[in-house]
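Long-time lurker, first post.

We've been arguing in lab meeting about whether pyridoxal-5'-phosphate would sit comfortably in this protein at all. Half the group thinks yes, half thinks no, and nobody has a model to point at. So I'm putting the question to the forum: if I give you the sequence and the SMILES, can you give me back a predicted structure of the complex? Inputs are below. Any interpretation is welcome too.
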Amino acid sequence: MHDFYSDTKTKPSTAMRRAVLVADVGDEQKDEDRTTRELCDRVASLLGKEAAVFLPSGTMCNEIAIRVHTKPGDELICERSCHLINFETGGPAALSGVMTHPIDGENGTYTAEQLRAAIRPSSRYSPESRLVSVEQTANMGGGTVWDREQLREVIDAAKDAGLATHMDGARLMNAVVKSGVAAHDWTADIDSCWIDFTKGLGAPVGAVLAGSAEFIRRAWRVKQQIGGAMRQSGILASMCLYALDHNVERLADDHGLASRIATEIGAFAGVERVLPVGTNIVIFDLARSAPSAASVVDSLAHDDIQVGAFGERRIRVVTHLDVDETSGNVLCEALGELLS
Ligand SMILES: Cc1ncc(COP(=O)(O)O)c(C=O)c1O
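Top reply:
Settle the argument with this. Predicted structure of the protein with pyridoxal-5'-phosphate, as tokens:
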């Protein structure tokens, strides 16, 4: 199987699984799991924040952060294609009673000017703009790395208006490797942020949400309330620590492969356009003359190749730890047969 559907499809390596055998564990809910504490300390320091909390998933990081930052009836401003609008089953509305205010950005990012236009003036009639979220990298924009200055302006505009700021850092480490900018520089002045271990970093479970000590104290209360507190979570945290030690630098390989795939498929007549490839995600639109995205996905599946259809003519290919140059060749050849 050549699985380019998502970087969530990686399976823990033997070495990563071995880390579990020697993990020091305890009751996480009582703060007695030393491996989990070590992971949280490392991520807090990586992201330049006072504290951090271990959670099962990135979705839970987003949803808990939204709950802590807002109250029902508030508004959350973010880019239209982002995960928390499109793939969290209405979580902001269901779990926090929050309205989302989408900005039509470019490749998953937006400008300070667009943000300022989206922030509501104070009025008896309107929801209160309360929280601003950015996605680093922007998944459906093509793994886009934010322009640093643009991000700084967005965060400044949010702060000037008194809004809290959140970074969905599911693939922040891809941005770090691609840009050479340290994680804590990307997250400076952002109130809450997190990284995911189940994307390119290759672990099976886990994300860590970071912020001020007070933010994390409140995040812990929500975690406890929704049943997210764990017991011997060092079993999981040990694989996340392994990922931090071994799987960050190699993300550059994923970026190289994605870029090569984009160049090859961009030359096929059946491909109308390929979005700029920021990191490890290639998104392309099929020409009218080509088969539909669903039919391309089905045809590839017959050859044991998986990619994702996102819309009638849009396809996403994601590179990661478990696909290599050979898989890339197989994919490009198969797509060439369908789309040349
Ligand atoms: C940008 C982004 N945010 C959040 C998530 C959610 O992460 P998780 O699958 O760990 O819940 C994903 C998952 O693909 C994502 O791509």
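For your lab meeting: Residues 75 and 129 are 5 Å apart (CA to CA). The two ends are 23 Å apart (CA to CA). Whichever side wins, do check it experimentally.
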